[in-house]
Design brief:
Helices cover about 20% and strands about 20% of the residues. The protein has 8 helices and 13 strands. The protein has helices at about 135-150, 165-170, 185-190, 190-200, 215-220, 285, 305-310, 315-330; strands at about 35-45, 45-50, 55-60, 75-80, 90-95, 100-105, 115-120, 120-130, 150-160, 180, 205-210, 250, 260. The strands form 3 sheets. Strands 10-9-8-11-13-12 form a 6-stranded mixed sheet. A 5-stranded mixed beta barrel has the order 1-2-3-5-4. The protein has a two-stranded antiparallel ribbon with strand order 6-7. Strand 9 (about 150-160), helix 2 and strand 10 (about 180) form a beta-alpha-beta unit.
């Protein structure tokens, strides 16, 4: 039914009043061209501590970002009060493009991804040689996650005063991993910290590991005094460490030669998000042999072409074993 006559006038059209007296909503958002650049140091209950020039600024995420969240290691753009003074709060209006993202899931059957850190170059996998006992499957899972994220893995073995490192080093020798072995005495004298620091120079390195392996103790030895975090101990009954680090924190190396990101201790490292096909990328000496594999080959089946490739001498059999051991972790729960 026609509401108005043939000849209408603007005065004839009724407009609904705005009872709140505020401006109508618009999809046009401010560009924030004057926003300052920042680097996310830590996240705590929706509040983000960011480094802006030489100041630490507390900020929150702007509503226009929606569900997109910033994590430790992100580069961001901020507006508002950037003085860093007490009781001030800035807003994060943009999150920069990420060059890498380290993710994990709670379990292999958990579809919910948790972003651990962004923009890291290297993943330091910290494992104690004793107290608690080393868990190779956990190392394997971290390696898969590192390869999937495009990070260079670094194996850090602690507490060498309690057990020798040869068994673990032999297990991963075929992967050609960079590694370093340290103990508490060397950390106290500074010798171990110097060796580790050489491998971190000019890089952003995320540290992951079980609670109680000495991860935070190592990080404290690497950074300047006054920036150390609290450390815990290993339960003598359960053999597990106590969570003293509850949130990831980025800390600068002395003289600004790099960053270390201390992450909370984990009990498991789920790989639900990882495409098994990407794990082979960490084995360039085996890539050529995959050309003869059947479609969607899991590389662990009777007609896999990698067996013939290795038998012909193109690669070390131990390398194929390592690949299949890593791929197997994608299908297993973390059990020991």
């Amino acid at each position: 039914m026609r509401r108005y006559g043939k000849h209408t006038d603007e005065d004839d059209i009724r407009s609904r009043p705005n009872p709140k007296g505020n401006r109508p909503r618009t999809n046009i958002r401010p560009k924030h061209e004057d926003a300052a650049d920042g680097f996310v140091l830590t996240v705590d209950r929706g509040r983000l501590t960011c480094l802006v020039e030489d100041r630490q600024v507390l900020a929150m995420k702007a509503r226009e970002l929606g569900r997109k969240a910033a994590v430790v290691g992100d580069t961001v753009s901020l507006v508002g009060d950037l003085s860093g003074k007490k009781d001030t709060l800035a807003r994060i209006v943009r999150i920069g493009e990420r060059k890498s993202v380290l993710r994990r899931t709670a379990d292999d059957d958990d579809p919910y991804e948790r972003v651990v850190v962004a923009n890291a170059d290297q993943l330091a996998i910290v494992t104690a040689l004793a107290d608690p006992e080393p868990r190779p499957r956990m190392i394997d899972r971290c390696l898969v996650a590192a390869y999937d994220a495009g990070l260079e893995p670094l194996l850090v073995l602690t507490k060498s005063d309690l057990a020798p490192p040869e068994k673990i080093l032999d297990t991963y020798a075929t992967l050609g991993l960079a590694h370093v072995v340290v103990n508490r005495d060397e950390l106290e004298t500074g010798d171990a910290a110097d060796r580790v620091r050489e491998l971190l120079t000019d890089r952003v390195t995320a540290f992951v590991g079980h609670s109680g392996v000495g991860k935070t103790t190592l990080v404290n030895a690497l950074v300047a005094k006054g920036r150390q975090r609290a450390t815990g101990h290993v339960n003598k009954v359960t053999g597990r460490g106590r969570h003293t680090t509850t949130s990831a924190l980025a800390l600068p190396l002395p003289d600004g030669d790099g960053w270390v990101i201390d992450t909370p201790g984990v009990r498991s490292f789920g790989l639900h998000h990882v495409d098994p096909a990407r794990v082979i990328l960490a084995f360039p000496d085996l890539m050529g042999g995959t050309e003869g594999c059947p479609r969607a080959c899991s590389h662990d089946e009777p007609d896999c072409a990698l067996d013939q490739w290795v038998a012909e001498g193109h690669a070390d059999p131990a390398r194929l074993y390592s690949l299949r051991r890593l791929l197997a972790t994608r299908e297993r729960r973390e059990g020991d």
